[in-house]
Structure prediction request, 311 residues.
Amino acid sequence: MLAAFVTTILFSISAVSGSRSSRVLGGTEAHFWRLCFATFLLGLIAHTIGGALAGAAFPILFVSGCVGFGISDLALFQTLPRLGSRLSVMFGSCLASPIAALIEWLWLGTKLTQAQLLCSFTILTGVAIALTPGHHLSISRRQWGWGIFFGLLAAAGQGFGAVLSRKAYTVAVQAHENIDGITAAYQRIVGGMAVTVPAFLVVKRAALAQSIFAEAGERRAMGLEKREAWRRALPWVLLNGLAGPALGVACYQWALKNYPTGVVLPIVAITPLVIIPFSTYLEGERPTLRSLLGGAIAVIGAVALAFVGRH
Prediction:
C-alpha cells in the first residue's frame, strides 16, 4: 500500500501548486501546460528505458487517460466555479471510490471483503465530514444542477479511468507482459492530451479573437501582463506537472497494478486532508476543528485498510 500513500502526498503537492498556477494563468491553461511538461518527462523515460507506446495494454490505457485525464479533469474545472472547491473535491474524492468499486465488480468480478468495505466507508465518511461546507452556497438552482452534473461526471471519469487501468494490467498479464508505472502513466497521459489539447485550443481561440480586436496599446499591455504572469507561475506549473501527472500518476498506476480500485481510491481520497499542512504553510489556511476530526477518521480508516489489505 506504500504506492497509494505516496500518491496522496504527491497529489497534495500537485493540488496546492496547481491552485497557485491556476490563479495566475487560469485553470485551463495551467492544466494544459502541466500536462505538457509531465508528458515530456514521462515520454523521455518511457521511450528510453520503458515500454513507450507498445504493449497489448496500450489501447486500454489510452482510453483510460482520455476518461481520467481528459474528461474527468475537464469536468472538474467546470465543477469548481459552480460548487466551490470544497464540494468539488468531495465529489471527486468520495464518489470516485464507490463508483469504481461498483464498475469493477460488475465488469471484472472483483469483490471486496467486509473489512475492506468497512474501512473504505470509514475513509469516505471522514473525508465527507472534513470537506462538507459549513454554510449554504449562494448559487442558483441552475448552477447547482450543472455543478452536480459535472461533479458526478468528474467522479465517474476518475473511477472508470481507474478501473480501465486495472483492466489494462489484466490484459498485460494475459499477454505475458510486465508494464511499469512510468510506462502506464505515459500511455494514459497521451490519451489525456488527446482530449485536453482540443479543449485548450477552443479556449485559446477565444482569447486570440479578443486580442486581435484590441487596440495596439492594449495588446502591448496584455503581452506584458502575460509575461509577468508566466514569470510568477512557471515554478508552480513545473512542480504541479512533476508531482501530479508525472510522479503522482506513476505511483497511482503502481498501486492499481497490485490492488483493486476499491482499496486504492479510498486511500487516495484522503488527499484533500493531506493538503492541510501544505496549504497552511504556502497559503496561510488554518484547518477547522471539523476538518481535523474528519481527517483523523479518514486516516484511521486508511491505516486499517492498509492492514486488512495484507491479510
